[in-house]
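Morning F.,

Quick status update on the modeling queue. The single chain you submitted on Monday has been processed. Sequence for confirmation:
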Amino acid sequence: MKKYEFVPNDRIRFRVGDKDIILNRIRAVRDIPKHDISAGQLGGYIECEDNLSHAGSCWVGGNAQVFGDAKVFEYALVTDRAKVASNAKVYGHARVDGSASVIAGSVVEGNAHVGGRALVRRLLDRLDERFRVGARLEAEVDEGLGPIRDGVLADAARDPADVDRDAARVSPRAAQERIRLHRRQLEEARIRADRAVRQRLEAARAASEQTMRFVKLLSYEGVLERGFALVRDTEGTPLKRAREVRPGQALRLQFADGSANAIASGKPAGTASERKPSKAPQEPGKQGSLF
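Structure tokens below.
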């Protein structure tokens, strides 16, 4: 049984690369108690029914957008101005809200919550891999202590008489120098490992922030946030010139925090030639006035 339908003449159109994307607003046709949704209540925008499952209590609300090969299913909720795109998946009891973006094959599942201006993508997988590299470096440093530990245990297992005889022949200064050398090598290895992990994390963080700025730059919502509005007709087609608007025409104004309906007023916008009055014809044989 279907739980939503598309709302006629309420669409968002934009372009990604060389592909035109058309998103359709949805409306609930039955109650969804888990997310306090009542039949008839408007939801967010999806590109097709593959983006939001009719099974379970999953929902796309607010002005959220789900498009591409992205899927929302089971009991998940995507709301506010969040975006889920590419082949990302949101399911389980997960929630994505605020201005968060989930893209590039990312998965949000279980009881996870992604909000604010977060950006989830496979970059996080690479961060996890770099954490594992740091752990492996630390393990290698610990492994370097093995020979020292084994040597100490071997000396402890020797016959006390042999130890006393060797001690009489060998100065403790050499052993102390060896211990200091190994300690210095161990400390240097730890410093290099910490520095490598920090550098990799900083590079990953910078790449993530740059991607977030790029996504914000490409979004038309970034323009709306600065106080502009997008004017569409009832079919959802953007109107770019005043001459495209007819008096009495129904319009839909898209702001950063929502939409509003309006009716155009005034006179039709004419061309420059229509507005400029023509000169009166000059009578034959008379000189025109300079004034």
